[in-house]
């Protein structure tokens, strides 16, 4: 009897052991399956979000957010300038994430080995222009911080504005940018900084910098006059065979009469410098080129008095004649630009879909329009956009760089349009995160800055160099078909 009981107990134990083992195996299988499924869903989500970043903002929900920031509609908004739309936010990269940060501050400096040898670089492309800003200052050279301490701009709706930070940034660790420059909070008056900038522009095979310019006694809302820096910039540019064009900003009370005076001033004072940029036209003449920011704010009749041969303030057929390039925002502006007497169109905004002019899908149509009316077409490309350091409420308009893919997509589509010139927004507009200048990782106890990792700080200079060479070769091919000049001046 005891023997039979012993056998039954052993059999029962064996039975229980089997089901325990089976339960463990099934539990492990379910856990592994859940992990694999979760990773697969995360992968699909990441791919979809990345692809979505490359799509223009369609009109399904009306006009892209931010158009009301343009001067035509929202003139009371302090003008820093160039807002554009996006469907994605760079908050993925924790632009100002202060949660769970350790009390550690660091700035990573790149290895000098990343610098290319200047003699090994391809030739400069004088049909590739980059917008350049000389408005930065620090205590060492300027007695105070300028622009790095930029104010956080107010939203026009007080109810929204009250939900966001107010006041100014406090350099050097807290600056008005979502990225941190390799050169730190530099001064645009520092000759060594200007030289470093010219080296970087040269290393990117960019031939022309379009210098943001205000008349001698004028300046933007957050800066100081900078016209006195132009001679040094010209000298440093010439050292690297670079050319300098002028990007005329919307200074106070800009009209035909004072534009004539200012163009005359620029040509008289700087026109004989070897770095002063001139564009060779189809007729063989070489003329200065002026980009005119926010040109659409001024009535076409006012521009026509300056830019048409019959105008009362006409600059045409005079020693101060030049190529004037208008900013195209809306489709209707094309005909205003024609009536005004401008010589060409540029799009400035570094985003796809924000305005008619900055939408890649419209570039072929704009090019046909320009060809028909013998205008220069200059599309603008950029590496990304994020301005939440100065417009904290503007997260909707952030454009993720996608490790350079956004920039390369824009460059590729610009080349397909066979433009007269390609412009880059920008070399160093740090407030709006459109810079191709070198940036480095930096974290403080309160802020985490974006950077170009896993790539080097020179990523966007290297990408520009690659596409500059490609553009140079392709332009030489189609220049003959379109009777474009094949030499810069």
Pattern of helices and strands: HEEHHHEHEHEEHEHEHEEHEEH
Secondary structure class reads alpha/beta
Number of helices, counting only DSSP H or I runs of 4 residues or more: 11
> What is the overall pLDDT average?
84
Biggest pleated-sheet summary: 10 strands, mixed
- Seen as an oligomer or otherwise, the chain set is single chain
The helical percent reads: 25-40%
Strand content: 5-15%
Q: Tell me, what's the shape?
A: globular
- Report the span from N to C terminus: 113 Å
Spans where pLDDT lies below 50 across 5 or more residues: 55-65, 73-103
| Gyration radius, in Å | 28 Å
Strand count = 12
What would the keywords be for this entry?
alpha/beta
What would you note in describing this structure?
- The protein has 489 residues and is of the alpha/beta class.
- The chain is built from 11 helices and 12 strands.
- Strands 2, 3, 4, 5, 6, 7, 8, 9, 10 and 11 form a 10-stranded mixed sheet that branches. Strands 1-12 form a two-stranded antiparallel ribbon.
């Amino acid at each position: 009897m005891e023997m039979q009981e012993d056998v039954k107990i052993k059999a029962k134990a064996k039975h229980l052991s089997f089901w325990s083992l089976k339960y463990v195996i099934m539990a492990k299988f379910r856990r592994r399956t859940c992990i694999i499924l979760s990773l697969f869903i995360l992968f699909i989500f990441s791919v979809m979000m990345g692809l979505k970043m490359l799509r223009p903002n369609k009109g399904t929900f009306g006009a892209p957010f931010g158009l009301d920031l343009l001067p035509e509609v929202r003139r009371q908004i302090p003008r820093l300038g160039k807002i554009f739309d996006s469907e994605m936010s760079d908050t993925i990269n924790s632009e100002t994430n202060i949660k769970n940060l350790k009390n550690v501050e660091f700035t990573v400096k790149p290895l000098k080995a990343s610098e290319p040898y200047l003699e090994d670089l391809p030739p400069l492309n004088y049909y590739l222009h980059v917008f350049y800003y000389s408005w930065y200052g620090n205590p060492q050279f300027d007695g105070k911080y300028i622009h790095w301490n930029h104010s956080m701009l107010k939203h026009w709706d007080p109810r929204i504005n009250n939900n966001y930070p107010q006041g100014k940034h406090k350099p050097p660790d807290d600056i008005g940018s979502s990225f941190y420059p390799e050169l730190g909070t530099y001064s645009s008056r520092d000759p060594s900084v200007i030289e470093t900038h010219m080296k970087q522009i040269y290393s990117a095979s960019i031939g022309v910098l379009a210098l943001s310019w205000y008349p001698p006694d004028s300046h933007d809302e957050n800066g100081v006059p900078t016209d006195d820096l132009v001679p040094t910039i010209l000298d440093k540019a010439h050292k690297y065979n670079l050319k300098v064009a002028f990007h005329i900003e919307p200074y106070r009370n800009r009209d035909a009469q004072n534009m004539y005076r200012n163009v005359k001033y620029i040509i008289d004072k700087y026109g004989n410098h070897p770095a002063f940029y001139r564009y060779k036209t189809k007729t063989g003449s070489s003329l200065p080129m002026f980009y005119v920011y926010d040109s659409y704010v001024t009535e076409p009749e006012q521009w026509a008095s300056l830019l048409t041969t019959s105008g009362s303030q006409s600059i045409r057929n005079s020693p101060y004649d030049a190529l004037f390039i208008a900013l195209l925002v809306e489709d209707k502006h094309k005909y205003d630009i024609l009536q005004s007497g401008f010589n060409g169109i540029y799009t400035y905004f570094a985003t796809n879909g924000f305005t008619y002019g900055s939408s890649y899908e419209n570039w072929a149509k704009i090019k046909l329009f320009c060809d028909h009316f013998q205008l220069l077409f200059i599309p603008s490309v950029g590496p990304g956009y994020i301005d939440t350091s100065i417009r904290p409420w503007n997260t909707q308009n952030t454009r993720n760089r996608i490790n350079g893919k956004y920039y390369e997509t824009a460059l590729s589509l610009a080349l397909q349009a066979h433009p007269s010139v390609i412009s880059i927004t920008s070399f160093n507009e740090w407030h709006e995160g459109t810079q191709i200048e070198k940036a480095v990782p930096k974290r403080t106890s309160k802020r985490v800055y974006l950077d170009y990792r896993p790539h080097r700080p020179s990523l966007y200079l290297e990408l520009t160099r690659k596409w500059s060479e490609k553009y140079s070769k392709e332009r030489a091919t189609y220049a003959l078909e379109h009777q474009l000049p094949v030499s810069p001046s």
